């Protein structure tokens, strides 16, 4: 129960600082999305390597992983396209 409260408090502190983090970030939306995708991929690879769940993949699994990567790439391109749309006031 104590661990759950500690995790809850950490989550609340991080959620509270998101506004401050948003003010400190000077990157545009597209570049920020690409950095987040790369960071997530690196962290996932590290977690899988540490837990020894990283194994060789079959051709079918490789296809599924590639499809997921393409979808993530489309999301990055979407954020880059949206950041270039002029606003009308």
Q: How many strands, which pairing sense, and closed or not: the largest β-sheet?
A: none
Instruction: List how many beta strands DSSP finds.
Output: 0
Radius of gyration: 18 Å
Unreliable residue runs = none
The assigned structural class equals: mainly alpha
User: How many DSSP helices?
Assistant: 4
Keywords: Membrane, Transmembrane, Transmembrane helix
Protein name: EamA family transporter
Transmembrane segments: 32-50, 62-82
Key attributes of the depicted protein:
single chain; 89 residues
What's the topology here?
Layout lengths: L1 H15 L1 H7 L4 H22 L8 H25 L6
Helix pairs in contact: 3-4
What does this protein structure show overall?
This protein is mostly helical and 89 residues long. The protein has one domain. It is built from four helices and no strands. It has helices spanning 2-16, 18-24, 29-50, 59-83. The longest helix has 25 residues, at 59-83. The model has no long low-confidence stretch (mean pLDDT 81).
Briefly summarize what is shown:
The protein is mostly helical and 89 residues long.
């Amino acid at each position: 129960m104590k661990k759950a409260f500690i995790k809850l408090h950490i989550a609340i502190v991080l959620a509270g600082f998101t506004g401050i983090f948003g003010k400190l970030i000077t990157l545009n939306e597209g570049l920020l999305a690409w950095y987040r995708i790369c960071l997530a991929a690196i962290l996932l690879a590290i977690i899988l390597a540490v837990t020894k769940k990283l194994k060789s993949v079959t051709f079918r699994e490789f296809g599924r992983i590639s499809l997921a990567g393409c979808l993530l790439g489309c999301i990055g391109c979407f954020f880059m396209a949206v950041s270039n749309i002029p606003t009308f006031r």
